[in-house]
Amino acid sequence: MGQQQVMIPVSKDSFEQRLAAIHRKNCEMMPTPLLAVIQKTAVLLKRSGIEQSSLQVGESVADFTFSSPFSKPFSNEGRAQTTLYQLLETAPVIINFFRGFWCTYCREELAEYQQVIPQLLHHKKNHYMAVSPQQIIGEEVNQAQCHLVIDDQLAIARTFGIVYPVPEAEQALFGHFGMSLPKVNKTPQWELPIPATYVINQQRQVQFRSVNADFRHRLDPNDLLTIIG
Fold this sequence. Notes:
- By secondary structure, this protein is of the alpha/beta class.
- The chain has one domain (about 15-225): 3-Layer(aba) Sandwich (Glutaredoxin), CATH 3.40.30.10.
- The protein is about 40% helix and about 15% strand.
- Strands 5-4-3-8-9 form a five-stranded mixed sheet. It has a two-stranded antiparallel sheet with strand order 1-2.
- The chain starts with 14 loop residues before the first helix and ends with a helix.
- Mean pLDDT is about 85; it is low at about 1-10 and about 70-80.
């Protein structure tokens, strides 16, 4: 797969304003029963304890191998694959787990990261990874300064404890919009990661985490500029 330039339009509104606008539009456009499915799923996920059981601050992060087909290889040798620990040899790593480009909230989050990536990478001396299980991407996505990683079978997200089985009601919701997650993610399971942002320090430990079982709520990428100092 060749290298691609990834471009997601960014509005002048703040990140929080854009997420609020998506929420208002969904409330206006979606039938009440479908909105109820989204709300119920979020509540059940909160109650499941997935936020508390996911990888916590101070815990060690297991190494993993990955490739980034939409950008240049990480390694100086030009290899197509590298590992988390290899990245950590040179700088801390920011890992942003998102559901897929089909998710409007995720697209807004990635668009905001595009604005702060120069500061996160060049001024703050970090690596940035955008990780999603989506394998079928039917459009060009611009992540020229980051590494867009396809998480096959959600193997990476699973090590962080943020994967959940999509309940039947939510599966039907996807079906209402003509979408099959197993097809898009090329997996037999109906599974998704809950959105999460992790900062891994060079001691291979979680320095910071933002994990929310409700996909409608995300960490503002601008806050990372302050958080990581």
